[in-house]
Amino acid sequence: MILEAFLLVAAALFCIGLFGALTQQSIVMLMMGLELMINGIILAAAAFWYFLAPAADGQVIVVAVVTAMAIEMAMGFAVVTAIYRAKRVDMTDSATELEG
């Protein structure tokens, strides 16, 4: 494949994630949109590293970023689950009014 194809897929992932993050009211769907945006950025970075400087350093960084992203999303889902169990709030508008 060529670099342009990878960048096209990365841009599509980012745009779909941006649309999902801006239009959804559910906290889980918002987080899924953010996940797609981050995946698009990671794909573009990995494609640039592969085609412009094909060394193992870029691949190691991509693996580290994907691992950190997975941990971050797991923690985010844990926080959302805790908020839902405590206050029965699953929409972003209701979550802004939480106190204490």
Automatic annotation (TrEMBL):
GO molecular function, one term: quinone binding
Gene Ontology cellular-component annotations: plasma membrane
EC number: 7.1.1.-
Superkingdom, taxonomy of origin: Bacteria
Compartments where found: Cell membrane; Membrane
InterPro entries xref list: NADH_UbQ_OxRdtase_chain4L/K, NUOK/Mnh_C1-like
Pfam family, one: Oxidored_q2
Keywords assigned by UniProt, alphabetized: Cell membrane, Membrane, NAD, Quinone, Translocase, Transmembrane, Transmembrane helix, Transport
Reaction(s) the record says it catalyses: a quinone + NADH + 5 H(+)(in) = a quinol + NAD(+) + 4 H(+)(out)
Quaternary structure and interacting proteins, as annotated: NDH-1 is composed of 14 different subunits. Subunits NuoA, H, J, K, L, M, N constitute the membrane sector of the complex.
The family this protein is said to belong to: Belongs to the complex I subunit 4L family.
Function: NDH-1 shuttles electrons from NADH, via FMN and iron-sulfur (Fe-S) centers, to quinones in the respiratory chain. The immediate electron acceptor for the enzyme in this species is believed to be a menaquinone. Couples the redox reaction to proton translocation (for every two electrons transferred, four hydrogen ions are translocated across the cytoplasmic membrane), and thus conserves the redox energy in a proton gradient.
Name by which UniProt lists this protein: NADH-quinone oxidoreductase subunit K
Species, as recorded: Pseudonocardia ammonioxydans
